[in-house]
Amino acid sequence: MGKRLIVVAALATALAPAAPAETVARILGSNIEEQDLGREGTKGLLQQVMQRFAKHYLKANHIEATQEELGAMRKKFANAAGKSPRVDEFMERYFVVGTVENFKMNRALWDKHGGRLVLSAFTVVYAAPDALAKELRALEERAEFSIPDTARREEFYRHLLDMKGDGVVEGARAREVLANPPWK
Q: pLDDT of 29-79, one tens digit each?
């Protein structure tokens, strides 16, 4: 009898409906669930928001990497790695295309809003946090971005605005950085 009860309990547990995923943020019609953050917490939330925002912003503003820019970026990465200009699929998407699109998006954001640029030794410009915060707040006003938990929202913006990367520049120095794309 005891074994049957254990089996029945195990089956009932396995067949029970899963608890609904906890939505921690919503951006441009896309939910970000707690499970999407992994162990990263606020950093994971920032990454998820930035990925979804970038995809939308690039498309909405017709920003894309040209074949010339991509070719130059491929060559630059290959030279840095001491290899031929052939780049695998992962390198192509995340480093070649990603670097060009990220640079162009952050340049557009900075041109519109100004503020600081967070630099990266690898991709040159990692983020324009002040400009991104302004865009996200505008999305909030239009109910296209939300983090329902007030404390989590405050922590998110604090994390965004405290980015340091490999250095932070603004003003004339930011303009100089943006005048020199990484593929040149």
A: 999 999 988 888 899 999 999 999 999 999 999 999 999 999 999 888 777
List the 30-33 sheet strands across, edge first. 30-33, 23-27, 145-146
Decide if 107 contacts 96 (C-beta within 8 A): no
163 within a domain of the structure (yes/no): yes
The CATH code of the domain that includes 127 is: 1.10.4030
What CA dihedral angle connects 107, 111, 114 and 118, to 10 degrees? 0
Q: Does 184 map to a domain? A: no
Q: What are phi and psi of 153, to 5 degrees?
A: -60, -45
145/49 Cα distance (integer angstroms): 9
User: What does each C-alpha distance from 53 to 3, 41, 99 come to in angstroms?
Assistant: 52, 18, 16
Domain span at 84: 2-178
Global pTM reads 0.82
Tokens of 15: 């067949």
d(CA 170, CA 94): 26
Q: Which two tokens stand for residue 58?
A: 């690039």
The model's pLDDT over 76-125, given as tens digits with 9 standing for 90+, comes to 877 776 766 566 676 777 788 899 999 999 999 999 999 999 998 876 88
